[in-house]
Amino acid sequence: MIIEINSKIAENLSKTELGVVNYINDNEDKLSELSIVDIAFETFSSPATVSRAIRKCGINGFNELRYKLTAKTENTEVKDLNEIMNKSLIEATSVIEHMSIPNVLNILHTMKDAKRVLIFSRGPTHLVAQELSMKLQVLDFFVVDVEDPQIMRIMSKNLQEDEVVIILSLNGETKELIESARNAKLRGCKVITLCCSSSSELFEYSDYTWLGYKHSHIAIRNYEVTSRLPLYIMCRILVDFLVENIEHRD
Question: Where is the HTH rpiR-type domain (predicted)?
Fold first, then answer.
C-alpha cells in the first residue's frame, strides 16, 4: 500500500475520504499518471476531498504522493515529467516558506509612498519587470521600466529621495545593476532588490531585500535562460497585496 493507515487514522477519515484512500491503494500501478481531478472523478468526490484525505494520512499533499509513486514506476517519461513538476513545486514552496512577512510589508509600504518607481532589470528577467511594470501602472503607480544599461546608469545618478528603485535579478551579478543600485543609494533613494542569490553585492546597496529560491537543476545550460519562476512569484505577491489594499481602502 502506498498510503499506510492504522485504526487511529481510519477513525479520523469520513466515509468518502476512506473511499479515496482505498482507491489510491487499489490503483497504485496507474496512479502516477493520474491527476487529482481524475481521482476525484473516479471516487465521486472532489479535488479538495482527495487532498484532505491524503493529508489526514500524514502525506503533505497530492504532489508528495505522486512523487512517491513516481519512484516506483518503470516509465522513464513519467519519472522525468514528475521530476520537472517537483522542481517547480520546490521553487514555489521555498519562496513562500522563506518569506519574511514584516520585510515584504516594508517593501510594499515603501512602494506605496514613492513618488516614482523605477524598475531596473537585464536579459530574460526584463520579461518579469515588464509584467510588474504594467500591473503597477494599472494600479496608478508612476513607473519607469529600464533595461538599457546606459540609461539606467544615467538615471540612477539623477534620482530624488522620494523615488524608489526596484532591482530584479536572478543571480545578482550583473555589473550595471550593481552600479545603478550604488548610485541610487548615494542619491538617498530607497532601493529594493528581489534576487535569488544570497551572495549578491546588490544586497550591500539595498534598503530592503527579498531572497528567492532558485533550483540547482538548470534545464538549458548553454544559455542564460534559467526559469524566472521565483521572481514571478515574488512580483505576483506584491501586486496581489497592493490590489487587496486598494480595494479595502476604497
Answer: 1-76
What are the two backbone dihedrals, phi and then psi, of residue 48, each rounded to the nearest 5 degrees?
-65, -40
User: Would you give per-residue pLDDT tens digits along the chain (250 residues)?
Assistant: 788 888 889 999 999 999 999 999 998 888 777 888 999 999 999 999 999 999 899 887 887 787 777 666 666 766 677 677 777 777 888 888 888 999 999 999 999 999 999 999 999 999 999 999 999 999 999 999 999 999 999 999 999 999 999 999 999 999 999 999 999 999 999 999 999 988 999 999 999 999 987 766 555 455 555 778 899 999 999 999 998 876 555 4
Domain that holds residue 138: 97-249
Integer Cα distance of 54 and 49 in angstroms? 9
The count of structural domains within the chain is 2
In whole angstroms, what is the distance from residue 124 CA to residue 70 CA?
A: 32
Nearest to residue 164, comparing CAs of 199, 112, 124? 112
Q: What is the pTM of this model?
A: 0.73
Question: ∠ CA(110), CA(114), CA(118), 5° rounding?
Answer: 100
In a shared domain, residues 219 and 133: yes
Does residue 87 belong to any structural domain of this protein?
A: no
Spell out where 98-162 has E strands.
116-120, 143-146
Strand ranges across the sheet with 163-169: 143-146, 116-120, 163-169, 190-195, 208-211
